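re the bet — no i am not wrong, look at it urself. input seq straight from the record:
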Amino acid sequence: MKTKLRLDQVAKSYGPVRALRPTTLDVPEGEFLTLLGPSGSGKSTLLQILAGLTACDQGDVWIDGRLSTDTPPHDRGVGLIFQNYALFPHLTVAQNIAFPLEMRRLPRAEIDRRVTRMLEVVQLPHVGDRLPRELSGGQQQRVAFARCSVYEPSIILMDEPLGALDKRLRDDMQTEIRRLHKELGATILYVTHDQEEAMAMSDRICLMNDGGIAQLGTPSEIYFRPRSVFAAEFVGHANFIAPASDRANSKCMVRPENIRILEEAERADTVIDAILEDTIMLGAFSRHVARSVTGERLVAVNWSDEKGTMHRPGEAIRLGWDACDTVHLAAEAGR
């Protein structure tokens, strides 16, 4: 698959603060890659370097096989979408979308054609003559996406674009952005600190911490096969189990979805005696909180029983899981 973007040992410091440690990253054409991590992890710095808004201290940026480290932002073929949308309040929706094409001096007929197409792509053909203030937050976000995409940039960079929306609208826009990504075939780099957002939208996740890449992989790989204690704790809930004596230099981790409450005659590769502390019904799933006989707090998430759980708080239970669901994390691979 063609490499659309390559970062080669790119680094950035602000005085004594290392914002981005030497980082190498390859992004295939058409991929939806999410940069996920806590505040200060380096994800926004990396995005700004890609956009040409921040100069790196070392390393190189390659776009479509061309060295672009010193290329100005307007010549990189990169589109940007930010959290605040940055729409021109005095221009109509159609005029906002047309603006980047007018700056490139395209013929009027071509501008009109592209604007009409993008309004159809974002499913807003009826709002072209409205001002941004007359639109909902989700509609404004779609207009921002249309304006960014209309000039067919090589890469679309999105910096926490859904941060200002409420949860329901965020969920709707996640689906919308995925649809637009597939329809346009664009290469998208998406920055967020929201793990659920990253899991829902990404082809791959670049998990960042302390100015570098902690792990790079598919959502499934990041979730079920984390390579560090940080990755295990940051993405989802992690149950840490005391290691066996022959693995004293490791931590054992099991995801709640892989732990089940065993019935009397049921067997499992790993079995732990525990006391059930609480069961929380969350709809289709229920979260069971238990305490092992050695004092470890364990959480299991299983399908809910329509008739209600057969187990009650204070009851002695057995928790079990398959050996393949135990992930061993080296102690030095933590934070």
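see?? The chain has two domains: 3-232, 239-333. told u. also The chain is about 25% helix and 35% strand. so pay up
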